[in-house]
Specification:
Elements (H helix, E strand, L loop, with lengths): L1 E5 L1 E5 L1 H18 L1 H15 L5 E4 L1 H15 L3 H7 L10 E10 L2 E9 L1 H9 L10 E6 L16 H9 L3 H11 L4 H10 L30 E8 L2 E12 L2 E6 L2 E4 L5 E2 L3 H38 L16 E7 L11 E12 L2 E5 L5 E3 L9
Antiparallel strand pairs: 1-2, 2-3, 4-5, 5-6, 7-8, 7-11, 8-9, 9-10, 12-13, 13-14, 14-15
């Protein structure tokens, strides 16, 4: 794998590009050539012909550089050159196509399972499960989707249904059907997203106008806002809709702007419903992830008990020549099958300072990391 550090830390190889090409064909088949080509073109406009898997976003990338610089006693510039040379196993696999939505944006991607990527993040002092590995396939005209989970795979039939079920109301109904426990919270949202009256006329109509997506159209006197990229994530720009001749414009930060769909009317019930749904989905995803992690921990403990292995509490409990085992579950980070357990064996070869080294199954000597992650 070739690793680049450019704020974010990204990895690529021929397989990544090939998998992206396969996903493009699948997306065209599912959504139709016209729609899929638009999504793919937006990605190409941003990324060019390159395909990559992000190992760490810009913020995590900065933390990783600081960690390596401190750990090795080198400058940050040198740390950026060191990171691409660190061991990274290319044992990733594509799980299927996923889809994410947020703030009116939509994106399609290949969901990637990558144990080596998680270990690489851990070696950089980052949360191993802090990044949903994926290969971007395409996104809408409003841009890529960030800050939401990208680990769920859509089946071919789901992909076709997702393409046709784009309204918020449909999403609420689907979530209520899939999660009965959330119905008391979801059903009130249906009344907020009921079909609204749409009228033709000028923006100065005395009747409230709506955009085709069901959101309120700015009218004179409305307080409005727009979410924009900021230094540390996103920022909110606020303004007010004003009459401007025979049209409506937005006055914000001393400037006049077109009253486009990017401006959101404050207290728009549809926007509130979208935000409520997003919060519920995020809470449910967190619960599901924690359940999988707990099941994975139980599966690892059961495997160790069956093999009569015991945990290694600290470095003092290891000796040169000890056989040690690293037991892991595909669900240990909350995004795999918790019942699929794997074990690798090594032999301790040296203990120096606060680190131990072992010979792995391929005959290479490597640092063992945290002793608590091992069994004997």
């Amino acid at each position: 794998m070739h690793v680049e550090v450019k704020g974010a830390i990204m990895a690529t190889d021929a397989r990544v590009k090939a998998e992206q090409g396969n996903a493009e064909k699948a997306l065209i088949e599912a959504l139709g050539e016209e729609e899929a080509t638009k999504l793919i073109a937006n990605r190409t406009k941003r990324d060019g012909d390159k395909a990559h898997i992000t190992l760490a976003g810009p913020q995590d990338g900065k933390k990783a550089v600081d960690h390596v610089a401190t750990e090795r006693g080198v400058s940050k510039g040198e740390a950026q050159r060191v990171i691409p040379t660190l061991p990274l196993e290319g044992n990733w696999r594509a799980k299927g196509i996923g889809r994410a939505e947020s703030g009116g944006k939509i994106a399609y991607f290949v969901v990637v399972d990558w144990p080596g990527g998680r270990e690489f993040r851990e070696s950089l002092g980052l949360d191993p499960s802090g990044q949903d590995f994926h290969i971007t396939v395409g996104f809408g005209d409003s841009g890529d989707v960030h800050g939401v989970p990208k680990n769920r795979v859509l089946s071919p039939s789901e992909l076709k249904k997702e393409a046709s079920m784009t309204t918020l109301r449909s999403k609420i109904i689907r979530l209520a059907h899939a999660q009965p426990a959330l119905r008391p919270h979801l059903l009130p949202l249906l009344t907020r997203t009921a079909a609204v009256e749409r009228v033709e006329g000028t923006p100065l109509s005395p009747v409230r106008l709506y955009w085709p997506n069901g959101r309120m159209r700015p009218m004179p006197g409305d307080n409005v806002y727009v979410v924009v990229p900021g230094l540390y994530g996103t920022a909110v720009v606020r303004g007010v809709a004003i009459k401007y001749g025979d049209s409506v414009r937005i006055k914000a930060q001393g400037k006049s702007h077109p009253a486009s769909t990017r401006w959101i009317v404050e207290n728009d019930p549809k926007v509130k419903a979208e935000e409520s749904l997003k919060r519920l989905e995020k809470e449910q995803a967190a619960k599901d992830k924690q359940r999988v992690i707990s099941e994975a921990q139980e599966a690892v403990a059961a495997y160790a008990k069956k093999k009569r292995l015991r945990p290694v509490p600290s470095l003092r409990d290891l000796s040169v020549g000890d056989k040690i085992y690293r037991i892991s579950s595909e669900g240990q980070y909350g995004d795999g099958d918790p019942q699929k357990v794997h074990a690798t064996m090594g032999v301790v070869t040296a203990i120096e300072g606060g680190t131990f080294y072992y010979e792995n199954e391929h005959g290479s000597e490597v640092a063992g990391g945290d002793p608590a992650a091992w069994w004997r």
